[in-house]
Structure formats: C-alpha cells, structure tokens
Amino acid sequence: MITLRNVEKFYEQGVIKTWVLRRISIEVPEGAFISIMGPSGAGKSTLLHLLGMHDSAWNGEYYFLDQPVHQLRKKERFELQKKYIGFVFQSYHLLDHLTVYENLEIPLSYRDIPRSKRESMVCDVLDRFQIVGKKDLYPNQLSGGQQQLVAVARAIIANPKVILADEPTGNLHSSQGQEIMELFKRLNEEGTTIIQVTHSEKNASYGRRIIKLSDGWMVKD
What we know:
The protein is α/β, with parallel strands linked by helices. It has helices at residues 44-51, 74-84, 100-109, 115-128, 144-156, 174-189, 201-204; strands at residues 2-13, 16-28, 33-37, 59-64, 67-68, 85-89, 162-166, 193-197, 209-214, 217-220.
C-alpha cells in the first residue's frame, strides 16, 4: 500500500544542512497498524506529515497505492490525500466557528457527494460515536475527550484507507486516551490502515509493528 525508498529531508540555513530524516525505507501493507516512536526531534511528526502528503520538500521515492507521489503535481497529491487519508492531530484541529455537525461535513464537501448523502453519512457517524446530542455544539463547548472523538469521527467519515494520527491522546486523561485507542483498534480490525506517532509505550502496544526513529534515522523496525 505504502512504499518509501531512501526518503530524506533536510533544512538549509546558509551553508548549514540540518537533517530531519535520513534514508528512510518502509513497506506498509494494507491493514497494518504501525506505531512510530522515538525521542523529541527524532523526525516522527515530519515522517507522518510526509506520508500525509502535507510536505513535498524531500528526496527519495514514495509510492501510495502504486502512485509515485514523488512525481505527482500538488493538485494530484491533494486528490490522493482527500480520497484516501484521514488525519487525527494532538490538538484536534477542529474549526472553532463551526458546529460539530459542520466540522464532520467538511471532509465530505471536498468530494462530489450529494447533500442528502452527506447528511446521511454525518448522521451515521454521529450515531456510531454516540455524539448525536453534541451535533449543534461548538468545539469550545466540548471537553478535550469529546473534541478528540469528533476529530476521529471527522477523520473516518469518508471511509479513508489510511488514518495518520499524531500523538492522538497527548492532551487527554488516561481513560479518554484508552477510549480513543480502543476505537483505533476496532477501526483497524475493520480493515483501516493506521499509522500513529506516540511517546506512550501503552499506546504503541496497540500497533502490531513499532518503528523507532533517532536523529532522523530508522533504528528499529
């Protein structure tokens, strides 16, 4: 599903190069659940954003569903991203001026989905996540756990093939964090590929494979 070959990234400041990723080569089959670990500054989030096609300033080869991402134009990458990838961030990234319902509808509005179908899909996910009673509330009216539940619901509403999660429980209490991880586990069992960045050994154990980074290098897989 995903293949990285000798992917590297660096920042230049004058004549100084600061390497963030070095010679990263990974194969991710469909249905995998991978945890990426390592100390701060190891390159974990950089790698995740590269996989999510947010970042194109890197060297190497990246194939996603046999598409050569490293050769695609920005618009083509965006089409792949919005069709197949869902994102969950530590800081939720919900839009404060939109209700829960409207936040959930946003990913569907990027696609050619009729309004009646969008309404049905939003209602289904509200019911599935047991947040029907929150649909008219704004993010600042929700607890951290509720906001992250909405963020996960938004990530999966369009049935992505891959969920990329960056420290998805970092701002949550342990019980709320466990609820999110159990949800990821169920989604993975249903066939969704999940790649998460985490500092937590407990959260990492939900994955079936752990990749460790250090100073931009992959030191364990």
